[in-house]
Write a structure and sequence with these properties.
Layout: E1 8-15, H1 22-28, H2 30-39, E2 43-48, E3 54-55, E4 99-100, E5 103-104, E6 110-111, H3 113-127, E7 132-136, H4 138-150, E8 185-189, E9 211-216, H5 224-231, E10 237-242, H6 252-284
Helix pairs in contact: 2-6
Amino acid sequence: MAPPLPKTPLKILLLHGYTQSGPLYRSKTRALEKALVKALPTYSLQLSYPTAPHLLLPADSPSYFSSSTRPFETSSTDPAEPDPVPAPATENPSEPDSWGWYTRDGEGGYVGLEAGLEVVARAIRQDGPFDGVIGFSQGAAVAVMVAALLEEGRRGGFGKAKGRIEYPGSFSMENGGVVQVPVGFVVSYAGFRAPMEEYEGFYDPRVGTRTLCVRGSLDTVVGEERGEALMRVLRDSEELVHLGGHFVPSGKRELAAVCGFVRDALDRVKRQTRIDGSMGANQTL
């Protein structure tokens, strides 16, 4: 009997929401992890859950409180619109385990975004390269930014000459390249786009990475308008609406849709790789 074929490594980066942490996000996405393992039997799933760099205090999220009333909801806030969330379990309740990829100043600017992206770049160097990124709320906003930064030709959209932030140095290599090749997909749970002109480099030109935008029809934190604003800057996107609020849904319908999207995205990357390989071979001949 022939030995089983080795599984293909599948590395996915998961970015938590505002007031969460990597370990908390992992505990809230167990259903998704199990569904992906079952739906992708030829892959060896490797998930990475970095924690954002900015420690948040209660004053940073006044509505943050301890609750166990919604155990299946990965609810979180974003800096613009606080929303009650379950507090993570810690050994010492007086020590917060609440983090953000950035905070916001009085004018809506993203304070500390470069440090947040630096944590992501470090995760890519240590655990990547990644095949895809899955994020929730603020983490979803950053996930789209990360996908954009890895695309070819993106660097020219940044810079003070255009009134925009500089291309993040943490994503640059000494040889002029970027920290890894473009990812094959993004899953954005309750994601949104940065609204200010200084961040337009992430979206101009539009993001080409295939993206699934998942939103709740009852989400009052990141509403339909903000979700649509994100989709307008995505060149290849799909939308999945669930009958809930601001959380990562774990219903069978939503899990099946996400797994199907990831599987299709991986198949597309495989096909494109074969086409590129054939073109290269023909050019060699």
